[in-house]
Amino acid sequence: MKATKPWVKPVLEYGPLLLFFAIFMLKRGDTVNLWGQEYTALVFATLIFIPVLALATLLQWRLTGKLAPMQVATLVLVVVFGGLSVWLNDPRFFKIKPTIIYLLFAGILGYSYLAGKDWLQAVLSEALPMDVAGWRKLTLRMALLFLALAVANEVVWRTMSETSWVYFKTFGLPLILFVFLMANARLYRDHALDKPTDAPDESTR
Known about the structure:
Keywords: Cell inner membrane, Cell membrane, Membrane, Transmembrane, Transmembrane helix. The chain has about 200 residues and is mainly alpha-helical.
């Protein structure tokens, strides 16, 4: 993996989402006329978000030399469902996109757990070295988390205001993921692999 400055990755990952939020808040309650068509603030923000996310993902790949499977899947679904929202001028497609993403991840991790596969370990083992039992527990917990997030997204966008959903998407979902990762600190510690020493102890020679 190519070396990059520490701030590059978070900027490329969260920058497009924050830009989406800023454009929505700036245009909230207004309509934007483009190509003879009127777009709501959410659809217009989605129109900007799609190419910006694609560019940020491409830049991250060029700078680091790799992308996480979750990033690739997210980009594909953003292009598909965000594109449908813009094309049909219907924000519901973009609102349902997180549901599809989280159901996809829940299904993949659920199958991985039931089939005894180590897919999550294969993706995250470099950053989080754990034993097999630890990865099994984390796989099940993350599958249930993504299932709960899919349900939560459906409840929020169907029962609350558009502004509430944008806040939930921009800040609520990342915060829930962060809290989940922090809440599993004991799991990481209890199942951590001992790091091998780089050089033998001089005293044993």
